């Protein structure tokens, strides 16, 4: 009997959204297996500590179930210090697990390039220092960031409590700036932006990319390309 493909998902411990997005998106097309890295407060220092102290164990736990792919499911954690940090995480996870690693940040960049957009407006739940890492990473990927607008939330559990309707209202604040952007990127896998997309698309007539949406599509593409569709 053929088994369903297994997706290993690494998330911050306080993330309450990405697993749900994966379950809903894959339905019965794959099994989702999560491992957590301890983090409650989203700051640059805490993200570095989370990756340094907890990523190795998370990878080892997922490696033991023989996944077909491992997802590093934290946009801002990958962006700490810039795009090269995200690439190093993917390479390190693959070296340790012997399994393909897909990161959120690389998936977002791929999704934006697919849309043919270079001028990007960014919305996030983050504080300023975390926003700057996102800006730096996108700039290094040769995008132009027209603006980056954050909610200023520092506790990750609060990020997960922001409703899709609240995200929609937050996006409305930058509507006057939308003519400066060819696409909007909604950053953070713990932000329920994927659920807000239908309402957002009725108002914003430009491509919209969310962290969860981008990495889910990247995983689906990888599994299909490797005969797991």
How would you describe the overall organization of this protein?
The model has no long low-confidence stretch (mean pLDDT 96). The protein has helices spanning 18-26, 44-63, 75-79, 83-97, 104-114, 128-140, 156-161, 164-172, 193-203, 211-225, and strands at 6-12, 31-37, 69-72, 101-103, 119-124, 144-150, 183-186, 208-210. It starts with 5 loop residues before the first strand and ends with a helix. The strands form 2 sheets. The chain has a 4-stranded parallel β-sheet, with helices on both faces. Strands 6-5-7-8 form a 4-stranded parallel β-sheet, with helices on both faces. The chain folds into 2 domains: 6-105 and 213-225, Rossmann fold, CATH 3.40.50; 106-210, Rossmann fold. With 229 residues, it is α/β, with parallel strands linked by helices.
Task: Provide a brief overview of the structure.
With about 230 residues, the chain is of the alpha/beta class. The chain folds into two domains: about 5-105 and about 215-225, Rossmann fold (3-Layer(aba) Sandwich); about 105-210, 3-Layer(aba) Sandwich (Rossmann fold). About 50% of the residues lie in helices and about 20% in strands.
């Amino acid at each position: 009997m053929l088994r369903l493909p297994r997706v290993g998902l690494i998330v911050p411990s306080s993330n309450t959204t990405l697993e749900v997005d994966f379950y809903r998106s894959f339905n019965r097309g794959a099994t989702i297996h999560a491992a957590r890295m301890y983090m409650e407060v989203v700051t640059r220092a805490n993200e570095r500590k989370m990756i340094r102290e907890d990523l190795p164990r998370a990878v080892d736990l997922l490696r033991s179930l023989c996944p077909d792919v491992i997802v590093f499911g934290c946009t801002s954690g990958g962006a700490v210090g810039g795009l090269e940090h995200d690439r190093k995480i993917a390479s390190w996870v693959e070296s340790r697990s012997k399994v393909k690693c897909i990161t959120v940040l690389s998936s977002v960049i791929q999704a934006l390039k697919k849309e043919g957009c270079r001028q990007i407006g960014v919305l996030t739940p983050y504080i300023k220092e975390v926003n700057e890492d996102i800006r730096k990473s996108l700039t290094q990927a040769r995008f132009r960031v027209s603006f980056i607008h954050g909610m200023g939330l520092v506790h990750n559990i609060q990020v997960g409590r922001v409703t899709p309707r609240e995200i929609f209202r937050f996006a409305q604040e930058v509507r006057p700036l939308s003519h400066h952007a060819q696409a909007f990127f909604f950053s953070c896998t713990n932000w329920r932006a994927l659920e807000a997309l239908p309402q957002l698309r009725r108002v914003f007539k430009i491509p919209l990319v969310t962290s969860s949406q981008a990495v889910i599509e990247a995983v689906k593409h990888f599994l299909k390309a490797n005969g797991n569709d």
